[in-house]
Each structure stands twice: as C-alpha cells, then as structure tokens.
Amino acid sequence: VATEQGERLAAFVKLAKGYAAGEEIKSSAKRGGLTFQEFAERWTKGDLAKEFPAHLKEKRTASDDKYRLKKWVYPVLGPVPLVSFTLDHYDGMMRSLQTADLSAASRRQIAQVIRRVLRLATYPARIIEVNPIPSGALPQKGVEKARSYLYPSEDRALLACKAVPLAHRLLYGFLTREGMRTSEATALRWELLDLERGTVSVETQNKTDDYRMRPIDRHVAEALLAWRSQSPKRKPADLVFVDPKGHPLDADRLAERLRDHLKLAEVSRRELFAASATRLRLRAHDLRATFVTLALANGRSETWVSDRTGHHSSGQIAGYRRAARTAKELQLGWLDPLDGAIPELARKGSTASGTGSSGSRGVPGGRGRNPNRAAKRRLAPSRSVRNEFRFRRRKAWGFKSLLVHSGSDFVVLASLRGATSDPRETALGAMRGNSIDVRREHDVACSDAGACRASRLTDRRTSSYRFSRPR
Fold it and tell me: How high is the pLDDT of residue 144?
C-alpha cells in the first residue's frame, strides 16, 4: 500500500512540475493557433481519435463529412481561427446556404458538422472554453421524405446489363438480397465469409457498433464462390468487392453511380431519378431498403429482418411497412437468385426465372412458398365447393354450366338440360329475389327457372351460395 501511494505521489509531483514549467500553456497556445479547417481535417483524418482514444472513435462517416466540409463550409469558415469563432460566423454561414439548392435536412446536417467540430475544440482538445453555437441554433429537420426501392424486374435488368462493371453489379445484388449497410459490404473481407456453411460475420464499425454473425442466401453464397474464382483479390484478408485492378470499390458517391448504371440498364421509372418536395430519389442506402421492403412483403417477420440488418427496434422497421403493403398488393414477389441473375456468375443451366420470384421458390432466404401462387389460390373458390358443383351435382342432375369470371369472383350459372330460358337470367333473377349480391358470389348453380332456393355454405377459406332443387 505504501509503495502504491508513493507511486501516485511521484506522478502527481511530476505533473505539477510540468505545469510549473509551462508545458501545458505552450501546448494550448500551439493548438489555439489552428484555423477551423485545420482542426476539422485533424478530426476527419482520425488524428484526434488517436490523440484522445478515451473520448473519440475513428470517424465512421468521415467521407460524408469531408464532402460537406469541403464543398460548403471551408470556403466560408475555413480560414477563421478557432479562438476567434463566434455565433456571427455561424449565422453568416447558414445565410449563405439559403441561396443554395439544398433541402432542410441537408442544411441541418451541415450545421451539425460545424457544431460537432466546435464541440471537439471545447473538449477534449480544450482550445476554446465554450461552444459558440447553442443547440437551438440548428435548423429544423423539415418533413421526412418518402424513400424509393427497386422492383424485382428493375433489379433483374440491372444485374443482367453487361455495360455495368461486374463488381458493381455483384455489390448491388448483394446489398438488395442481404440488407447490409454499404459501409459494411465495401469493408467485407473473404475471411469473414463462410461460404460452405453460408454465413457472414459483420465486424466493421457500423451505426450500432455491434458484432453479428448471420446466414446468407445460398444463391448469394454460390455467386460469391464464382466471383472469388475470377477476382484479382482472393486471399483471406483481401476485400470481397474490388475492381478488375484489385482496387476497393469506393462507397463515396455510390448513389450517383447506381442511378447512372440503372440508366444503362434502360430502367426509366421516374421515382428513381427525380426527387420532389415529398420524395427522395434512389440512394445507395435504398438497396438496403429494397431488402427490408420486399422481405416484409413476402411474409418475413420483423425478427427475421432485424437479425440480418442489425436494426434494434421495431420502430426502425415500421417505416418500411407502408411500402411493403404496396409491394404485397402488387404481387412483386422476391428477387431472382443472384447466381442466375448475373450472367458471368451463372452456373451451367442456371438462369433467372424472369417472373419476379426466385428459384428459391420466391421467398427471401431460399425457403417457403411462392406468394404469387398462394395469392391465386386465395382468390379461387374452395376445393370442396368446386368439386361439389363440377362433379356430383352436375352429373346427377344433368346440368350444362357456364363459367363467368369477373375480377377475383367466380360465378357458375347452370340450367337443367333442355331448359328453354337463358340460364344467366335464371340464376341472376333467383339471386336478386333472395337479396344476394351478385358481386360476392363464388359458385352458383340453378336447377330450374323460378324454382330455386339458396342456402349458404361456409368454408374455412371462403363463403359461397348454392342453389339446389326444392324438395
């Protein structure tokens, strides 16, 4: 104990001597001469994280903030010394943005970057005493805009277009089928993939900073195996997504490249390329939204989705529910198998289905029912009702039947053999006489003109009306 106390005392004495010698004052004076741009570059390059590891992590979105600072902030605030920065400088900066073609959300993001830099200058850098920008000075967020997602047919056209570089097509297909963040996918290494068992480990810094090992679709695994045999980088520590020269695919401005590649693939849906006051044009992050939207539309649970995307709450997934309901009503289906959608990676005899549902029976993950086929079964009458009228009644009573299809309703009109009246008018008149809504009928049979009665048949999947001969 005495030894430990002696070491603490010695450390304290050494620190006091340093203060007395003016070491801290000299250090502060040196940092105090930094301009806003010089200090901000130390932050985006990671130098501050190395100097203060207990308070800062290496910046995950450095590329986005570099772009905002270089394009909008440095021309106005770059030369300003940090110790001279005032609220007037910030107000002048925000006034200059009013004339620019920026959304309210973009202006707020720029203001957040400026305030973040000054907060770091306050602590832990301790260059200024107080952050001159109060929290209430940030612009309002504005209305949250609707997001876009790719249809399976658009994804199919993009991946099949050989004018688009193969590595980019593989990256796009991987993102839409696995739902990973762009930063996670571009940092993925071969050693993090177990293609034999079909798993991937996410270890890179992300929004939630959590490690997760999750399964991947077997068709995605097959496509990655085929890609590894062609890739210039195949070692375990190498990146998965690289260009033909082995250079990593740059995630910066990926959204612009994605839209350009869609145009090369002759995808022309207006919502993907033109923004409006209430809607965003397609971004690279919307490939992840495509995965969530189509997975929910095809019956996958929130738990299944969050296990793959890393979302921590239902509220984060709830924002995709409306688009998922629309996709389900449109019966868009799931995406084509990745190992068949990209011609260069397709196995012999493997092709895209061309129907919007994959070779893994149209469900994300490669298992389950085809939702398009299931929807058709739900629209049709029940098997028991169909059998009753098509075979037993018709054969016993000698009906000749007429099938009428209107939308999703099926109506069977029948008359006795040799009846002189129009069977259609006979059955419709009987239905009106019994106050039955014709549009709701699934199966109807009439035995004789003016001599019909109705009894309702209830099935666990559908309700029908039957006209039978009075006893």
Answer: 79
